[in-house]
Design brief:
Layout: H1 3-7, E1 24-28, H2 32-45, E2 48-52, H3 55-64, E3 69-73, E4 75-76, E5 79-80, H4 81-90, E6 97-102, H5 107-114, E7 118-121, H6 127-135, H7 159-174, H8 180-195, H9 199-214, H10 218-237
Helix pairs in contact: 7-8, 7-10, 8-9, 9-10
Length: 239
């Protein structure tokens, strides 16, 4: 059992207002914008959030401490999150609660096959959905007593976090080359677009991913996506 779950039995009991009080969450998420949404949700729920932006960083974190909850993005710069999920399930130590995250609904089946307990679709749910996703896997004595307010508010990260993601996406598209780097660049842009609920950027990212997969009209789709990213960066520069 994760250390946080043991301590929770006598220290920092959860309350209806802070139902995740006392828990430590490790989020493996490459997007700053999505990470900020998770941080706000964790803070308002009473939990502590740490972040790793790739598999290598997550493994370093997990070699030092055991969080109660792992939130694992499936699309990471150095591999797929299912690798880490499977490692945690196959390890000698009792694994934490593991929830996979992705903007691709098809990722849920792969994540559960690897051993994930649950799945969070992107864009991330509001506060109530975030809390419910974690509480559903906690033992009953770790739940708050009494009715819990159904806070449906969305997390609204700082616009600077979105700008950082857009800059990273633009750089990824400039330096992607071929193969896995190109596939990662496509999925990262699409993930950022979904988190920001930017339909125009989502459509452009999907066109680029399709063109790259089938080898047709790649240069046009690539240029179109870069132009839209440049426009979004110009819009956020004034924020």
């Amino acid at each position: 059992m994760p250390d946080d779950m043991t301590r929770l039995r006598w220290n920092r009991k959860p309350t209806p207002q802070h139902p995740l009080m006392g828990l430590t969450i490790l989020a493996i998420e490459d997007s700053r914008f999505a990470s900020e949404a998770l941080r706000l949700a964790a803070m308002r729920s009473g939990a502590r959030l740490r972040r790793a932006d790739c598999l290598a960083s997550a493994r370093r974190h997990l070699s030092v401490y055991r969080p109660a909850v792992l939130l694992v993005d499936l699309g990471l710069p150095d591999g797929c999150g299912t690798e880490l999920i499977a490692e945690q399930r196959d390890g000698d130590i009792d694994p934490p609660i593991i929830l996979a995250m992705s903007g691709d609904d098809a990722g849920e089946a792969r994540a559960r096959q690897a051993g994930a307990d649950g799945f969070l679709a992107k864009p991330l749910p509001g506060l109530a959905g975030f809390q419910a996703a974690i509480l559903s896997h906690l033992p009953e004595d770790a739940h708050p007593s009494g009715p819990r307010p159904a806070d449906m508010s969305a997390m609204e990260p700082d616009a600077l976090a979105l700008r950082e993601d857009l800059q990273r996406a633009a750089l990824a598209l400039e330096t992607m080359g071929q193969g896995s780097k190109a596939a990662y660049a496509a999925q990262f842009v699409a993930s950022v677009a979904r988190s920001a609920e930017d339909n125009g950027l989502i459509e452009a990212a999907n066109r680029f991913a399709r063109s790259h997969a089938d080898g047709h009209d790649v240069d046009h789709a690539h240029g179109d996506l870069r132009r839209i990213l440049a426009a979004r960066l110009a819009e956020t520069r004034a924020l």
